[in-house]
Amino acid sequence: MQAGRNQNTNAIIAVLPGQEGRRFISLCDSAELSRGDVLCESNHPLRTAYFPTSGVISLAMALGALPPLQLGLIGRDGMLGATLPLDTLAAPLRAVVQIAGTAMAMPVAQLQQELRASPRLLEAVNHYQFRLMMQTLQTAACMHFHEIEPRLARWLLMIQDLSFTDKVQFTHELLSHALGVRRSGITLAAGSLQRQGLIRYSRGEIHILDHPGLEAAACECHEVLNDKYRAVFG
Length: 234
Ligand SMILES: [Zn+2]
Hints:
Elements: H1 11-14, H2 18-27, E1 29-33, E2 38-40, E3 48-52, E4 56-61, E5 69-74, E6 94-99, E7 101-107, H3 108-117, H4 119-145, H5 148-163, E8 167-169, H6 172-179, H7 183-195, E9 199-202, E10 205-208, H8 211-217, H9 221-233
Antiparallel strand pairs: 1-7, 2-6, 3-7, 4-5, 4-6, 8-10, 9-10
Helix pairs in contact: 4-9, 5-7, 5-8, 6-7
The structure holds zinc ion.
Zinc ion binds near residues 146, 151 and 221.
Keywords: DNA-binding, Transcription, Transcription regulation
Protein name: Crp/Fnr family transcriptional regulator
Pfam family, one: HTH_Crp_2
């Protein structure tokens, strides 16, 4: 990760008006997010908060020796460190970069000062914390009730929404962990979406060809979650 300045858009920082926003950005460093970077282990203190401006961070739960299970995705809509207003001592989930990109980064101690000083920032972080909770709850229900293929379609839509990219670098292992299923299930689901002309995948890259078609193939969770956000936050 490299230091520097970055003024791209992040939804939480975008809430801060004029001078307050510029001041906050001036306090941030720019971070390059490389796929596979571990930003925080679960049950360890979070040292740095990240506000992605591109790219996607995955939140995962590990149980013993089992592979980590992905429960949430963070993109330009939010931040890593949204539980800080709760005075938490440790991060609840493992945070790993899923899609490479950039973020604005701020040491946690400094962000805690900013949260105490800015009711507007605190409100934006609290709202996002609630959104992230809704996303993880929806993901838990989705994993239990829905089939692999519509879940893969939903996951690709989420990645596209969060990162504004229609190309996703992937391995079968990555998708297996993302969806909590065996690699053979990923192969079947991706093959089916490709035969329908919705995606094309080769050499470790999925290219999303048909967004509306993917929405039709996805489970209801994608739309349900957007409806819930609108109902709660307008
Ligand atoms: Zn679902």
